[in-house]
Each structure stands twice: as C-alpha cells, then as structure tokens.
Write a structure and sequence with these properties.
It is a single chain. This protein is of the alpha+beta class. Among the domains are: 120 residues, Topoisomerase II, domain 5 (Alpha-Beta Complex), CATH 3.90.199; 90 residues, 2-Layer Sandwich (Gyrase A, domain 2), CATH 3.30.1360.40; 308 residues, Neuraminidase (6 Propeller). 29% of the residues lie in helices and 24% in strands. The strands form twelve sheets. Strands 14-9-8-17 form a four-stranded mixed beta sheet. The chain has a four-stranded antiparallel beta sheet with strand order 10-11-13-12, covered by helices on one side. Strands 21-18-19-24 form a four-stranded antiparallel beta sheet, with no helix packed on it. A hairpin with an 8-residue loop joins strand 12 and strand 13. Helix 3 packs across helix 4 and helix 13 packs across helix 14. The relative contact order is 0.07. The N terminus is likely disordered.
C-alpha cells in the first residue's frame, strides 16, 4: 500500500524530483577534470599578463585596499592575512602567510613585492616568525603592478561570496612573470620560470615592440639569461637558448667561489654565492658528511661565516692537498645543481608553454589593452573637466547676471533650472523683466549649472578667470594627446615604451648571475696530474699510492727506505707501478678481477699504512690482490694469460673483460688450495715462461694453451715437484732481447737473457733457473727487464728500494746471483715491479 501513497516529504519511497542517471566513470572523469582545471587556473599557475597566481594578486590588492603602501608604516602581517582571507581568498591562513613571506624574501624573489619587517626566514631553511610577530607593507615596485587599477584598466569579478569585487588581473606596469619568475605544481603539469634582470627584460620588450618579427637570437642580445636573486653562475649558453626558444630547458647552476692561499701556505675554498633555491645549511652539512666519510679528501676545516651581508662558507684544505681535486669533488656533489625551466603560464585561462618571445608578446598585448582603457578613461574625465571649465568661463564672463539670477531665484532648484534654461517664466508672475532677459540667455548643462551653484563668489574674479583659462588650455591639450594616442597604434606603443624606460631608470640594478662558458664537464680525472706512482698493498688489504719520483735509484745491496708502515701482524704483499690515469685490472688470489682507476687509490706518504681496500674494491674475506694489469696495454686481438700456484694456465680474450661490475667478475675458476699468482697480456704469437719458488722455469708456446672462457680453470703449464709452487710468469718472443730477472725472498737476484731458456712442451718439469737454498731462499717473482730499466723491490715489513737493472749482474742459468736488497733477518722480499726507462725526448 505504501507505493500508492502520494508524494510527501516524509514518504521515503516517493520518487525524488531531480534524479539524473549517469555512469559513475563519466561522473568521476568530469569531476576530476573540473577539479584539475580549478587547481590549474585558480591556484597553481601564474597569469602570463601580471605573472601572479590568485593568492599573490589578492594579497597585493588587499594591501592596497587597506592603504598599506610603500609610503605608510608597516602593518601586522596577521591583519593583512586576515583581510585577504576574509574578503578574497577563503583558504587556510598558513597558505596566505607563506605566500606573503616568500614575496618579502630577497633570496626568493629577484624584486620582492613586499617590504617585510621582522624574521622572514633565511637561506638555511629557517621558517619565518609567526604572523603576529612580523609586519609588512608593499614595496615600491609592487605599486607599479597596481597602478591605474582604478581607471577601468582591467576587468573585475565578484569575490567568493559576491560581497566585493576583485581584479581578474593587475595592470602590471612591469613584466612581473619574467622579473620574478614563478613555480608551482598543478594537476598533471608544473611550472618553473626563472627570474630575470629588469633592465634586460625592459630592453628586450622595447626591441620586440619595435621589431615584432625578431627571433630568440635577437632577444638574447638583450636578455643574457636568467638573473637569480642569490647570484651564482649559469654554465653554458646553449641551454639558455633552448629554454628561451622552446619554453623548456635545463640550466646548469654553479656556486660562486674562489680558491685563496692562507698565510700558512695551505689553500682554502671560499663560497660566496649559492645556486637558486639551495639550502645553505643542508649543503654545509652534506659537505661535512662527505669529508667525514672520506668521499672528499684533503679538507681540514669547514665553517659557515655567513651573515646579513651575504653568504660566506670557508673550506680549509690540508697542506699539500690538491685544491683542484677538492674543487671538482665539491662541484660534482654539492656546488652545482640543475634548474629545470618550464615556462608554463595561463593564456586566456588555458595553460601554455611559452617561449621568451611569446611571453613578451602576451605582456605587450596586455599593456596595449591597459593603456587603451586607461586613455579612454582619462579622455572621458578630461572631456568632463573641459565641459565644466567651459561653464565656469561662461559664468565668469556673465558674473553679474548670474549672481542676479541666483539671488532672484526662490531656491537652489529653481536657480539650477534657470541656469539650464528650463524654467517656464510664464508661470512666474512676480518675475522681473530683467530676470526674464537674463534667464533666457543661459543654457548651461546640468553638470555646469550644479558646479556654478557650488562656486564661491571669489572664484568669479578676473584672476580666477585667467587660471581657469590656463587650466582649460591644459585640459584641451590633454584631450588632443589622448585622442591621438587612441587614434595611433604607434603612439600607444610609444607610451608603453616610455613608461618602461622610466621604470628601468628607477628600478634597474646590476646583474647578479654570471654566464660562464661551458668548457665541458670537468671530471675528477682531468684534475689529477698524470704521473707514475707506486701502489702498495698489504695482506690485510690496506692500499695506498705514492709518487714514483719520490724514490731515487740506489746501488744494489742497499736496505732501501721506509715505503710503508703495516700494522702489527700485517705484511706487504704487492707493489706495482702505474700511471695515475691508468685503468687497472686487479686480479685476486681467488680468481676475481676488479677494475679501478689508479687515482681512486688514496695518495699517502711513505710512512702511512694506507686505506682499507674494501672502501675501493669490494673484496671478500681472505681475498688478496696478487696481479695487476694495465688496460692501456690492451689490443683487441690480445689475451689475458693467467697462472695459478698449482701450475694451471689459461688464456681468455681481453674482450671478455670489457664490462666489469663494481663487485668484480670471475676471471678464472680456482680450486680449493690453489691461488691465482700472475697475469700477463699476450698476443697469441709468443712464448710463456713460468717460474717456480724452487728455482725451476719452463718455456713453451702460448698456443699450447687454448683460449677459454672466464669460468674455466685452465690446463697444466708445469709439472711441480713436492711442495713447489709457481712464483710468477712472463711473456716473451724468439727475438726478445730482454733478460729474465729472478729475485728471491732473501733479496738475491740475477739476470739471464731470455734466449737462454729453450722452448719445451707444456707440462714439463722445466729447467733450473736459480739455485735456491738457505742463502737465497725461495723465488719471490720473475720479471722481464731491459738494462736501462729500474726495478722497485719491497719487503714484507715495508722497506722499499729502487735499483737500476744495470746494477744486477747478467749470468747464466743455474747460478746463485748477487745481493739486490739487504733484507733484515725475519723479513722477506714481498714484491718486485719494473719501472721502464723513459724514452729520450
């Protein structure tokens, strides 16, 4: 029965009067689009005409309505925020205050629109004080944006509750969008417009007015690039051109700094300007973290000496530190940033990405409309004034008659009708004939008549008449001028240009941001001097490098000098020569290979222990570097030939080592109990010479070892007897005139021409190379040398000696050799490497 009841408010089953059936996906889509457009047009994006978002525009308009201009005293920020929120911007007060604060920050806006008094934040990210503690007023340049707003120059719209009217856009005497830039994130789009120098933008605008067909190149003759409030530098002009030509680009920003020399002789880096929108305190903190972690080396102290006069961050360097290297590390990680330009603004309510020329074109169109509407308004006012002045002049000429007419009138209304010539005298029997005659001669307009009635008697003097005539002539000239402006497009544009020139003269200042030539990205390697160095590695994986030039050659048999100071229980395991710019392949005893640049190894003094290699190479427990190969020696058709302690040999094409991960890759499969000992670069045409600790050597054609993949173990190269193990390997050819240098653990060695080692088949016992025993000890390593070379011999305790090869006697095989290095009891030769003779220049 309930369904038969009439439709009543209390009847829940009664059909609703307005029900519209829609698909939920359609409704959600339309609702989201409405929301997105509301954010885009009403909050996040600036208008191309005045460069302001609604919240900025409303704050400035509210301040003008409150009478808070640059010439008044400051007013509490809370009152400005309250007025803006109550009348124009019904959003949170924090959003309004944050906007007000930013408009007052000299490090945020190139030309601040608000003159703040109190704590308005800092470059360190410190927030502004609460709005009840700060005060504000408009800055002079902000008044230029609002000038002439009362002359019908822009359209107004109702505020959010239809109580008041607010401007849709400000007259904007200056191109604020480019002067102060803008940033914001809307729905599906964002804007990031950099600020510019006022003088440059004014010059470019005037040039565009005079040359509407000009291109980006022409405008860049005036606009050198963005001009950020924090100064700093832009690196490269190409990125600026791309941003101006397309509306999108990426600018490389670089801090302003200089390297100074202290009185103590050390250097320091003084930072005086930071890239735009960078947090100074956070940068200083990150630099300190990198110094503590060892990422940046050579820094002794870091101080922030900034004050109200500007930024000053001082980085003191250690004595002897390479200032160029530290500089490059700072640039790479801290002192350079990227500013992504997205010149997106609202054009007729629609978001558009604009080029520099398009942005200025829209601004010129806006100013053309503003000046036209202002001129029409001023012309109307001037004509109204001229009309009044004409009446006053006529009244002065007929002063006596008008005075009589007014005094004879019954009241003010009758007098005004009489002055307008609208009074019916036939109805006035008492009117005198003179009254009739005077009234009949006047036909003032209502405005003129009303003005005459308000005039004082003293204004009818002859002196006043002269002043009125002068004013009338001035007004007539003003009318003629305004009519000519409205009649001529050229003259109207001339007004715009003249006003821009006046503003430039008043507000122009020097450019703060410099434009640097892009000389390419300076890498860390570019700043490292190219020099030979010695790299020392210990069994516990401490590593360092030292300049090879710091070790003078000595006669054989000396003790050498301290080259490392390993901690107790540690011993030197490897020393090798390399150039600081070399790429090195570091092979470990477990068959892994790692790649690094020599300069990545920390440079330290002779007496330093070194730095843990795990900070440079991801070594596993028990993993030691046993062989190093310089990749600069590679040719495409060459191989890396490896040998293990147990005599296994394998060859692998160098192409398989092109892409080495930071965690290393497998170079050879090494069985338990075996270790990789040595690696040589071979070209498939030579022989291999393998030496053992017990003084045996074998020479065979490398082609007897087939090429294998990285995961292979290899084949037997030499048949070892007893506890014998492989000590090293060299590569040679039939016409090789070099010698085989053999050095034993007790510091003895000898040279024997490689031609004396006849070739055999692989996996033989070989020939005796040197007599081992109590005096010599076991063989430490073998090297192929020339008489003009030098060798570096290093003991396990850290003694190091550089010795000319010519000091070591050349003898036959199966001899004991001579003393190369005087090794102390309990110490042993750990490693030997060759320093080739420098070619004559």
């Amino acid at each position: 029965m309930s369904s038969d009841l009439p439709d009543q408010p209390g009847n829940v089953e009664a059909p609703a009067a307005n029900v519209e059936h829609v698909r939920i996906e359609d409704e959600m889509e339309q609702s989201y689009i409405d929301y997105a457009m509301s954010v885009i047009a009403g909050r996040a994006l600036p208008d191309v005409r005045d460069g302001l978002k609604p919240v900025h525009r409303r704050i400035l308009y509210a301040m003008q309505e409150m009478g808070i201009t640059s010439g008044t005293s400051h007013r509490k920020s809370s009152s400005i925020v309250g007025e803006t929120m109550g009348n124009y911007h019904p959003h949170g007060d924090s959003a309004i205050y944050d906007t007000l604060v930013r408009m007052a920050q000299e490090f945020s806006l190139r030309y601040p629109l608000v003159d703040g008094q109190g704590n308005f934040g800092s470059m360190d990210g410190d927030p502004a004080a609460a709005m009840r503690y700060t005060e504000a007023r408009m800055s002079p340049i902000a008044e230029e944006l609002l000038e002439d707003i009362d002359k019908d120059t822009v359209d107004f719209q109702s505020n959010y509750d239809d109580r008041l009217m607010e401007p849709e856009v400000l007259p904007a005497k200056l191109p604020n969008l480019l002067l102060n830039g803008s940033s914001g994130i809307a729905v599906g789009m964002s804007t990031n417009i950099p600020p510019h120098n006022l003088g440059e933008i004014v010059d470019a605008t005037i040039h565009l007015i005079d040359n509407p067909q000009c291109e980006t190149d022409d405008l860049m003759e005036y606009v050198k690039g963005p001009d950020f409030p924090t100064g700093a530098n832009i690196v490269g002009k190409d990125s600026i051109y791309a941003a101006y030509d397309t509306g999108r680009g990426r600018l490389r920003m670089r801090a302003e700094y200089e390297i100074q020399r202290n009185e103590s002789g050390s250097d320091r880096i003084v930072i005086s300007e930071l890239p735009f929108q960078e947090n100074k305190a956070r940068i200083v903190e990150r630099i300190a973290d990198d110094v503590n972690e060892g990422t940046i080396e050579g820094v002794s102290d870091l101080r922030d000496e900034s004050d109200r006069n500007g930024v000053r961050v001082v980085i003191d360097l250690k004595r002897g530190a390479n200032a160029d290297v530290v500089e490059n590390q700072l640039l790479e990680h801290h002192l350079e940033s990227t500013f992504g330009v997205i010149n997106l603004a609202l054009v007729d309510g629609q978001p558009q990405v604009l080029s520099l020329k398009q942005t200025l074109d829209h601004y010129i169109d806006h100013r053309r409309e503003v000046v036209r509407r202002r001129s029409e308004h001023d012309l109307e006012e001037a004509k109204d004034r001229a009309h009044i002045l004409e009446g006053r002049l006529k009244a002065v000429d007929n002063a006596e008659a008008i005075v009589n007419l007014i005094t004879e009138s019954a009241d003010r209304e009758q007098a005004q009708q009489a002055l307008e010539g609208k009074l019916d005298l036939d109805e006035l029997d008492e009117a005198e004939p003179e009254y009739r005659d005077v009234q009949a001669t006047f036909d003032f307009s209502a405005e003129q008549a009303e003005h005459i009635l308000r005039m004082q008697i003293g204004s009818l003097t002859s002196m006043e008449a002269g002043e009125i005539e002068d004013e009338y002539e001035d007004v007539q000239e003003r009318i003629d001028y305004l009519e000519s402006v409205l009649a001529s497009e050229e003259k109207l544009l001339g007004v715009i240009k003249d006003e821009l020139r006046e503003l430039k003269e008043e507000y122009d200042d020097d450019r703060r941001t410099s434009i640097l030539e892009d000389e390419g990205q300076v890498t860390h390697e570019d700043l490292i001097p190219e020099e030979d160095c010695l790299v020392v590695i210990t069994e516990q994986d401490y590593i360092k490098r030292m300049p090879a030039a710091g070790f003078d050659p000595q006669r054989r048999g000396g003790k050498g000098i301290i080259g490392s100071d390993p901690k107790e229980g540690d011993r030197v395991s490897k020393v090798f020569r390399a150039n600081t710019h070399d790429y090195l392949l570091c092979f470990t005893n477990q068959g892994q290979v790692y790649r690094l640049k020599t300069y990545e190894i920390p440079e330290m003094s002779r007496t330093a222990r070194g730095k843990s290699a795990v900070n440079i190479i991801d070594l596993d427990d028990g993993e030691e570097i046993t062989a190093v190969v310089d990749t600069d020696e590679f040719e495409e058709d060459e191989c890396l030939t490896m040998v293990t302690q147990q005599g296994y040999v394998k060859r692998t094409c160098v192409a398989e080592f092109d892409n080495i991960l930071s965690t290393g890759i497998i170079a050879a499969s090494v069985e338990d109990g075996d270790e990789l000992v040595d690696v040589e670069v071979t070209d498939r045409t030579g022989d291999l010479v393998i030496a053992t600790e017990q003084g045996m050597t074998i020479r065979f054609d490398e082609e007897e070892v087939r090429e294998m993949g990285r995961n292979a173990r290899g084949v037997r190269g030499i048949a070892l007897e007893g506890e014998d193990r492989v000590a090293g390997m060299v590569s040679t050819t039939d016409d090789d005139e070099r010698d085989l240098l053999t050095v034993t653990c007790n510091g003895y060695g000898k040279r024997t021409p490689l031609t004396e080692y006849r070739a055999q088949s692989r996996y033989g016992k070989g020939l005796i190379d040197i007599k081992t025993g109590v005096r010599n000890g076991t063989v430490a390593t073998v090297k192929a040398v020339e008489e003009t070379d030098d060798i570096i011999v290093m003991s396990e305790s850290g003694q190091i000696m550089r010795c000319p090869v010519g000091e070591i006697s050349t003898v036959g095989r199966n001899t004991k050799g001579v003393v190369v290095m005087d090794v102390d009891d309990g110490d042993r030769v750990a490693s030997v490497d060759v320093i080739p003779a420098q070619p004559e220049t």
